[in-house]
Amino acid sequence: MDTVTGRLLCGIGGFYYVETADGEWECKARGIFRRSGKTPVAGDLVKVSPLANGKGVLEDILPRKNCLIRPPVANLDYLVIVASIKQPEPHLLVLDKMIAIAEHKEIEPIIVFNKSDLADTSALCALYRNAGFTVLAVSAETGDGIEALRDRLTGKIAAFTGNSGVGKSSILNRLDERLGLETAEISSVLGRGKHTTRSSTLHKQPGGGYFVDTPGFSSLDMERLEPIPKEDLPYCFREFEPHIGNCRFASCRHMKEPDCAVRIAVKAGKIAASRISSYDSMMEEALARPDWEKRL
Fold first, then answer.
1. pLDDT, tens digit, for every residue of 95-105?
2. What percentage of the chain carries pLDDT values higher than 90?
3. How far is CA 175 from CA 107, 134, 140, 152, 203, in A?
4. CATH (domain of 53)
5. Predicted local confidence at residue 176, as pLDDT
6. Residue 46: phi, psi to the nearest 5?
7. Residue 23's domain spans which residues?
8. Structural Rg of the chain based on CA atoms
9. Do residues 211 and 108 both lie within one domain?
């Protein structure tokens, strides 16, 4: 039988579950994947040879438009970056690192501030909207803002990410109550969530498209798994781009160089102080990264 093309929904214990126009297939991958070092991940478009009784063989992975290591997911339209306005408090450096990774991977970030029922989100929403991003304030507790988020995601593939405790699974349960994803109480001692999501799985949206809940990860995980080269970092801050190329020095890193157009824009209020502070921290980390790590 000829191969069919499908979307890889998840991989569990060496089995891969692929959705095609003819139904869902449970597949084993050919040994060529192990020998070539290619690993199928959720979101991949793949070629499958159907066998019988819903079984098949995963033959090939089609070219990806993007891919993340953690969460292990490919071909995303959006990376939905969830932060909470309270419990835990938002950490802007971590948020900015997540945004920069999305930009570096050419995935459009959507920033979601959860728990809008607990505090005013307007200042933070304005900060990131002024930087050129789509920003939504929601409350998984009351449902406020969930419809606007659902409308944005319809027909798209979106991964949800953010640190533990910010309410990713609660938001996903609001988007589709059929999921019944596990949620966890916030630890009053640690101020963080006890994470419950164990694997990356694409969930089909009722209106079309998919979303994936992913393990929470820390700033350290992001830097280790998705490092951004220092020469690419300025382009991961989209509000810098109108000013890049206007500096006195072509090699300007936008740190302490004289007549830096980016720094002039900061002083003029065109770039937020918190964003340039995050950039400085990330650039210092990139410059300090050992050569062996840069080659990974």
1. 999 999 999 99
2. 65
3. 21, 18, 9, 12, 11
4. 2.40.50.140
5. 84
6. -135, 160
7. 4-61
8. 21
9. yes
- Residue carrying the six token digits 């995980």: 221
Helix (H, G, I), strand (E, B) or coil at 65: coil
Rounded Cα distance, 200 and 216, in Å: 11
Query: Structure pTM?
Result: 0.86
Long-range contacts, stretch 232-237, CB < 8 angstroms, 24+ apart? 232/104, 233/100, 233/279, 233/282, 233/283, 233/286, 234/262, 234/279, 235/103, 236/99, 236/100, 236/101, 236/103, 236/104, 237/100, 237/103, 237/131, 237/275, 237/279
**Tokens encoding 146:** 């969930």
Burial of 244 (0-12, 13-18, 19+ CB in 10 A): middle
CB contact at 8 A, 78 and 107: yes
Residue where a domain terminates, one of 61, 86, 104: 61
Report the pLDDT averaged over residues 165-188: 71
The residue to which tokens 């050419």 are assigned = 106
Q: Are 104 and 232 in contact (CB under 8 A)?
A: yes
Q: pLDDT, tens digit, for every residue of 80-118?
A: 999 999 999 999 999 999 999 999 999 999 999 999 999
CB 106 within 8 A of CB 130: no
